[in-house]
Amino acid sequence: MTFNENVRLDTSQVRTGGGGGRGPGGLAIGGGIGGLILTLILMFFGINPDSLPTDSGSSSPAQVDTAGDASNSLVANCQTGADANEDIWCRMVGAVNSVQAFWSSELPRYGREWRMTETVLYDGVTQSACGTASNQVGPFYCPLDQSIYIDANFFRLLEDQFGAQGGPLAQMYVVAHEYGHALQDQLGLLGRAQQDPQGAESGAVRIELMADCLAGVWVGHASQVPDPATGEPFLQPITDEQIRDALSAAAAVGDDNIQERTQGRVTPENWTHGSSEARQRWFLQGYQTGDLNQCDTFAVQSVN
Ligand SMILES: [Zn+2]
C-alpha cells in the first residue's frame, strides 16, 4: 500500500517512548504485577504473549525510555507520504493518520463521533496503563489509557516467526486492527470479550474477528480518505498483491497457526482470536463491503 508522496503526516497523533506519567506509577519493568496485568489484557486485545516464542535478542531488560525526548527521533523526520513509503515508523504515523481521518468522516454516517485515539510508538520497552509493553507482546490496545501500543520491531517477529509476508499493507492492517479495538471501546463492546474470553465461538474471538473486519472496511476506503492538510488521498489504490500481504498477516496471527507453531497442536477451546481462515474471511468481508454493519460478528451463529 503506497502513500501519495506529497500528503502531510501529522505526528501529533502519535507519542513515542515512555509513558509520560499517564500510566499508574510503580509498575515494575519487565514483569511483576505490571506484566501480569498486561498478560491478562493482551489475552483479549492483542496477541496472547504466552503464544509468542521468546525473542532471544531482547531478553535482557532493554533500555527504557523515561523521558520520551530521546525517542522522539523515531518520528522526527516523518513529514510526507514519501517518508511513509521509506520508513516503517513514518508508515505507522501515516496509517494512524489515515485510519483516524477515515473513522472521523465515516462514523457520523452512523450517528456517531470518532474520539481521537493516540498511538504510542516505541522501540524496546515502554509503560502503558495496562503494564509493560515490549515487542514480546505485540501491538495492543489498552482500554485503561485508551491508547494503542506498537513496537515496529514486532513486524520483524511476525515475519520471521510466524511466516507472514511482510509488506506495508500487512503492517498497516495491524494498525487498523488495533484502531478497530479502539472503536469497539467507544461503542461499549469490549466487555463482551472479558465476559467470554476463550473458545472458537467466544466473545473474545468475535471481538477480534470484528476488529479484522473493521480493518478491512478501512482498507476498502483507504484510497479515498483525504489528508486534511492537502485534500489529496493518503493512499494510492490497493493492488491484489498487497491484499495478499494483508491476508497473509491475518493468517499468520490465526490461533490455529500460532498454536501449531508454538505447541504443536490445535486446541480451539483455547482460542482467543479465531482461526487463520476466519481472520482472512472477516477481513475480506469488511474490505469487500466497506460497511461497518457487515462486521457484526455477534449477529451470526458461527464466526468460523
Ligand atoms: Zn486484536
Task: Report what the structure shows.
The protein has 304 residues and is of the alpha/beta class. The chain has one domain (11-56, 63-295). It contains eleven helices and six strands. The strands form two sheets. It has a four-stranded mixed β-sheet with strand order 1-2-6-5. It has a two-stranded antiparallel ribbon with strand order 3-4. The two termini are 28 Å apart. The structure holds zinc ion. The site of zinc ion (ZN) has 6 residues, from α6 and α8.
Quick recap:
It contains eleven helices and six strands. With 304 residues, the protein is of the alpha/beta class.
What are the SSEs and their pairings?
Elements: E1 14-16, H1 32-45, H2 73-76, H3 81-86, H4 88-106, E2 118-122, E3 125-128, E4 131-134, E5 140-142, E6 147-151, H5 154-162, H6 168-186, H7 191-195, H8 203-221, H9 240-252, H10 255-263, H11 276-289
Parallel strand pairs: 1-2, 2-6
Antiparallel strand pairs: 3-4, 5-6
The structure holds zinc ion (ZN).
The site of zinc ion (ZN) has 6 residues, from helix 6 and helix 8.
Question: How many E strands?
Answer: 6
Low-confidence stretches: 19-71
Relative strand content? 5-15%
What is the topology, as strand order, of the major beta sheet? 1-2-6-5
In helices, the fraction of residues equals 40-55%
Classify the secondary structure makeup into a structural class.
alpha/beta
Relevant terms:
304 residues; four-stranded mixed sheet; two-stranded antiparallel ribbon; 11 helices; 43% helix; globular; binds zinc ion
